[in-house]
Amino acid sequence: MTKVYQKSPAFFDTFERKPSMQKTTHYCPGCGHGTLNKIIADQIAELGLQDQTIFVGPVGCGVFIYYYFESASVSAAHGRASAVATGVSRANPDSITISYQGDGDLAAIGTSNAIHAANRGENMIVFFVNNNIYGMTGGQLAPTTLIDQTSATSPTGRSIKNDGYPLRMAEMIAGLEAPTLVARVGVNNPRNIRQAVKVIKRGLEIQRDKKGYVFIEVLSQCPTNWRKEPKEACEWIDEVVCKQYPFGVFKDLAEERGAVERPCKRVEFDAIADQLGLTADDEDASQKIEMLQDELRFKFAGFGGQGILSLGMMMAQMSMERNMEVTWLPSYGTEMRGGVANCSVVVGKKAIGSPAVDNPNVLVALNRPSLDKFGPMVPGDGLIIYNSSLIDQVPDDLQGKVYALPATDLASEAGTVKAANVVVLGFVAQKTGMFGLADLEAFLADTFKKPSLLEVNLKAVKAGWDAAEET
Ligand code: SF4
User: Who lines ligand 1 at CB under 6 A?
Assistant: First the structure.
């Protein structure tokens, strides 16, 4: 059994979210999420379920759950985790499917998804983290906010006339016929944590035995948005919150329920391709482009409006047309406001395992925050191309090969600063050897139909190409 102060074997050894935070989570000090994560991880490990477990993460403070648990995971759009978990569970009947959701995610935008998954009795366990407030977005009123509780959007307190009553999700779900186990626990003191451990273990055992739907509501402290010290926040749960949301097991039918079988017919990808008339000729290596390595992982980053996503899209599109495996993943930065926008592009000769790029082979940083943030993640054999028109200071801990490209100035000389991303395209293509200048020009001719626009972009791509040849 893992001791309380030991890292659970179901967690990763290091958390790769930020180079400076590899041993700690992103949760605020005193937050209940961390305790809950630890209990879940310990119980998964104790029951030997780690290899079967698939997490479905929410939008909210639990969004980065995939950085912590060393299990499969999927991120769902806001409120959709229970619906996504339904697909995950049915497509992987042997999995332990865990939907991890907060009160904004599950009890507001995702209420219908949550209720219907419960009503169908899906084989999944839902952790509903109830901290009576929207955490990640800054403490707005949630469906679970207590009567008279103040929030960013209810500065004089929740009013029944205006906002209705706090939603008791566990009691609502327990009223349905299908769920097997429904409970509410807390993670604010040792007594409640001991009870939470028992209930969570039982919920996982029910999943292991395929006995249907489990809903565990967890009263969790949010010291940051409650504007309380962590100790005070923990006490407030016992003194106030649990009066509205009493602890308890509202339903436990595990002993009388049998396994819920939902056979899922597997469809082979080749059969789908045949049905669609897509005969795969991707074995033809001659059509594939040459690259520095079999797989290149790009990170393109800059301010919104610098054409970052388009740049990634152009790289992905050209690679796809040359029969490569490709992923393109935009990010607007959930935790950043006014910071960097970026996109990850992976180009490979074989199927790509993950579209996420944590340690890029090629980083393009069009502004300073991007270089500061992603530069240290590039390994020693990687390339870092930064926009020297806008960046006058380069971090001194970069390991990759660094190129200064005055992309904005070159684009301006070509006719418009908006073409800085196309300057970069020319530079990257030349440095990685992925495309020839003629390929780039043909692609731009297909993309820009207006002659004046095409002319500017042809000049820009040539400027980037020439700059690469000169360095
Ligand atoms: S905002 Fe609240 S719920 Fe979110 S991590 Fe911080 S303390 Fe936890």
Answer: 27-28, 31, 33, 61, 131, 135-136, 222-225
